[in-house]
Amino acid sequence: IYCFVIICLKAATAVTTAEFLSQPNWLEVMGTSMSAWGGHTEFARWLTMNVKSDLIVDLGIDYGYSTYIWSNALSAKNQGGKVVGIDSFYFEVSDEYVRDTYSFVMEAVKQNKFSNAEIIKGYFSDVSASWTRGQTIDILHIDGRHEYENVTNDYNDWIQHLQPNGLVLFHDCNVWDQENFGVYRLLNELTDFKYKGYFTHSAGLGVVTNNLSIFQTIKTRYPGFHTSFPILPPAAALPSYFNVNSRSIPIKSMHYEQTNTEHATLTQQTTEKTTETETETETDMVKHARIVVDI
After folding, report:
1. How high does pLDDT run on average in the chain?
2. What is the pLDDT of residues 64-87, one digit of tens each?
3. For residue 243, what are the CA distances in angstroms to 10, 180, 191, 224, 250?
4. Is 18 exposed, middle or buried (0-12, 13-18, 19+ CB in 10 A)?
5. What is residue 101's three-state secondary structure?
């Protein structure tokens, strides 16, 4: 998950976690300003209502937005069910700063009474190895580290716990401006399921399942749901790097053509990597940040 929160040290502008969570529209603010996952809110709610969702596992929750959405959807469905959010809550932003969102998430769960949400602090592989629940997973959402090797390991560790007609969702399958992101590559390669597709908005969300009925319903309900592979970048996405076969190739431009059948061709012209970087001013940073949280 990309979280666009600016941690501000200025007392005049900072609000406490408790103050933020007490606002009636705090979850809406998170969805529109703090998380790239916000664009998938309606789909998550609809999916919860229309498939077996006794157990949802959310791998990589950061500030917790997706977990809260699953929790609310389960409450609205009113048929029981639980969402388990798992995260190490350890993210090295830089050598000097490590972001730990655990306190924020636990306070949010406590204050807003997400009683059907369970938060586990730990590494995905460790939690999977000790997973002893007698219940299989209905919806598995993978949104941890996004390098090809990491997301592949997360998938391999957890797929054993999925029920036969369950669904696996992959966030950030349409990210092209981050070096070494490989979610799209794993989704392109997957052959374990009969049906797979993806959304391109809000950093992309891949969907794989053996459930033909729900897959066809998704295709009918959501015109923006794509089922042709491989996933290729849109013309507007001109990343500094395009990851191919686990190695980064600097490129100057990409030409993308979309046919009526949604097959694509990609031409790459390589050149030397530019060393230019853009400096974001404080004004621009504040413009992107709708809230400030002192966690």
Report:
1. 78
2. 999 999 999 999 999 999 999 999
3. 39, 6, 20, 25, 9
4. exposed
5. coil
